[in-house]
Design a protein that fits this description.
alpha+beta; 483 residues; 3 domains; Arc Repressor Mutant, subunit A; 17 strands
Amino acid sequence: MTTNELREKYEVVIGLEVHAQLKTKSKIFAPDGAEFGHEPNTETSPITLGMPGVLPVLNKGVVDMAILVGLALNSKIAKRCKFDRKQYFYPDLPKGYQISQYDEPICSGGEIKISNKTIKITRAHLEEDAGKLVHAGASGIYGSAYSLVDLNRAGTPLLEIVSEPDMRSSDEAREYMEQLRNNLRYIGVCDGNLEEGSMRCDANISIRPKGQKEFGTRAEIKNVNSFRALQRAIEYEIDRQIEIVEEGGQVVQETRLWDDNKGITSSMRGKEDAHDYRYFPEPDLMPLEIDDEWIERVKKTMPELPKAKVERYMGLGLSEYDANVIVNQMDLALFYDEVIKGDVNPKVASNFLMGEIAAFLKEEKISINESKLTVQNFQNLLQLLEKGTISNNIAKSLVVEILKTGEDAKALVEKKGLSVMNDDGAILAVIQKVLSENKSQVEAYKNGKDKLFGFFVGQVMKETKGRANPKTLNELLKKELEK
């Protein structure tokens, strides 16, 4: 049987555990900085280093952000939650255990809507991150490679968001993660930078014969750090598990690592269950009490969420597709929001963003904020177009030039003499010249080849360098051809 035929026999079940690093200035239980990119081991303190006698102090800003996420995901915010010690040997977390949340998470329930279904959220809980191991290839004194430890990341606040096993394909898993990332970025709690590790994903994958209700044995793929890698890892794991079952074997519950270069997963360790971590309440932190007043105070800071933004854009005349494309690029959406505050046509503005501007940004590999196009200058260009001062084709060429130079739209039009030609007599003279130079095409048009009308329009536009008023041009050309 082919791979596709084998896949038809099975249903894949996928659940994701997404670790989002919260954008606080300091760590979850320590005063040292939590910003990415500093020299190794410069953002540490006795608490981060696990020195004897130190005590953790909870960062209130972390709680605020967790509540905001819970509200954005329609989760239930716990009125009481606690922290627990997760016993596990972390070579990059000096105290040898992780402070996390086990049976009383800060958020429970919730949902993320993707294009074809709703994915339920099980829980979201707070915890501290571990440090980072850097594996060096050089040989040491014993002839073996060695590892270096950077503790800057140790203790940075994480919110682990656990989904229900509701996804049935790698496409659904990717869309879920993209939508979750969008929500987190728009509410300002996580930058969603997968390459820097501020958002990481563990994927739990199992298969079962179609029609079977019981789940199969799952394998967990750890720390997938891109949307493409997530899809590739899931696709590989589906085929691996199907092959095992088809050959009469049994899938083992384990944790596996994804090798993006080889395109395979490999066994890392047997998958632990909760009891293996020997959770117990963190004795140095009191249970956290969250009252309604606290929740309401955080709720008032909630910005517009992506779903609401899409609906608002559609109300302005954008298609659902266009609205989603803009919203999925937060910097573009924020720029667009500022542009449409001016006296401009929202649909025309979106057409430029989706067309010439998006193409330029993609080619240059920059964001809208890194270009030289300002909100005011774009508004000026759109207003020139709306007033009929310039044609659509001229506006398209000008916006690319402005993206590169930042030159004022009005000044460019004046300097290059690009304003629309509205003089009926001048346009008529050009039309007559074009028709006299293309007599055979004129005869063909009069004999029924109506499509040649566009040819004549193009020739006139070429002669006028795109400046002829399109409406006037069409009216005068039609009259001339009917003579």
